Amino acid sequence: MGFREALDSGKFLITAEIGPVKGTEIDGLLEDAELIKGKVDAINVTDLQSSVMRLGSMAVCHLLKDLGIDPILQLTCRDRNRLALQSDLLSAWVLGIRNVLALTGDHPTLGDHPQAMPVFDLDSVSLLKVIGRLNEGFDMAGNQLKGAPDFFPGAVVNPGANTETALEMQIIKMEKKIEAGARFFQTQGIFDLDLFERFMKRIEGFKTTVLGGIILLKSAGMARFMNKNVAGVFVPEPLIKEMETTKDKVKTSIEMAARLIKGLKNLCQGVHIMAIGWEKRIPMVLEEAGL
Amino acid sequence: MIVAEIKPFGEIKDMLKDYNKVLIVGCGTCVTVCLSGGERQVELLASALRMARKIEGNEITVGERTILRQCDPEFIDQIKDEAAQYDAILSMACGAGVQGIAERFGSITVLPAMNTRFIGVSDGQGTWVEVCAACGDCILYKTGGICPVARCAKSLINGPCGGSQGGLCEVSKDNPCVWQQIYARLVKLNLLHFLKEISPPKTRPVHPRRLVREDLRLKKEQTKGV
Hints:
The complex is a heterodimer.
Chain A: H1 3-9, E1 13-18, H2 27-36, E2 42-45, H3 57-66, E3 71-76, H4 82-94, E4 99-103, H5 124-135, E5 152-157, H6 164-179, E6 184-189, H7 193-202, E7 209-215, H8 220-229, H9 237-245, H10 249-265, E8 270-274, H11 282-288
Parallel strand pairs in A: 1-2, 1-8, 2-3, 3-4, 4-5, 5-6, 6-7, 7-8
Chain B: E1 2-6, H1 9-15, E2 21-27, H2 30-33, H3 39-55, E3 61-67, H4 73-76, H5 80-83, E4 88-91, H6 95-104, E5 109-112, E6 114-122, E7 128-132, H7 148-151, H8 178-189, H9 193-196, H10 219-222
Parallel strand pairs in B: 2-3, 2-4, 4-5
Antiparallel strand pairs in B: 1-6, 6-7
């Protein structure tokens, strides 16, 4: 069952995320994918995450497909103009990629090639519209395609935006993304279930599918770093303390993630696990969470 | 106004190393207002150059002139005769001014003393900020008079990315997230519905841009091709 079918079936969805390496060494990445295969409904492959030059998402998605995993192609507007975005989408389709996550993308200045030209010819909303148009058999210019894709498009939302104004705008943009064709949403990492519950109440009428983000916390230091530097991520102090005082960080991290997943089961339609290097531990997290 | 800043002195000195008689030309409009290329800055740069070259034992003759606008042939012509007496002109205008003079006086070398930065406004003493990207398709009526094309690092037109923290831009903590400002202004103006509408992607300008106003052209030019 592919991701789209799993979503339509109404089951509690599980997706994970892997980030390609800088270089051509892919054995480790494929090993990780094999380990979580069968335990998740799809695997996202990031598109030069944090604007760091790496192996591309499309190639890795294709390799996952070959392993029998349904990939979600993350596609950002950072590096490609509308010609390249549309062409890459067609290329992805012929390589067997069926799901696309449309993102704005981090700014190049945050990555390892800060001198790069930021493209942003389209934004996440207009990219979603373009995906819908390609699905209908037309490009952005209105030209007819010889053979059309049938992508399942998704988007992201940041429920932890830390000012009321920022949250309000996230919700307005989420509505625009739904209008533009987004069929599912994956969120930034959630550590505060009460806050997330309030967010879900706010979007109750949207009738979309939300996969709550789970980040595997590796240490108290990582939590503090994210609180300071990662927009929309806030790890509450008790969780930081828990990581600080534990004798077995891995065990605590897995328990914490499982606890959050159990909480999310009552709030949204699935989870999206961002293991950030701990992909091998995803099966343990899912087992602990009873999934 | 067009905001420009003077180039590092070493770069200017290096540009002038093969010239012994240079006319520094200031511009009385934008760069005077942003205190970078007006009469006063011409005077300071001229003194610094004379002194530096004297120390090197390679004296230079430096003339000083400031005209009202270097982007306007009418004002450039005011210094035509004077300019002919120099080996080179060092323009303290924006890039349009430098090229305006170069175009008008084809046989004299014209050098830029400035780096042209952006179209902007003052943001407190000694600070200027970009506010217009000259995109050619103004959407300020939809954004509460605050331009996301110029003031959002990603020029997003459908609302913010997910990267702002505490109301600040992910790219530079010196910059507020312009979408937060737009949101606040639209709420105040009761125009939030504009933010809820999907804005189509902009048509990207093709350089060099050209503006033709038929109503202002002379009759005989109207029949000519561009």
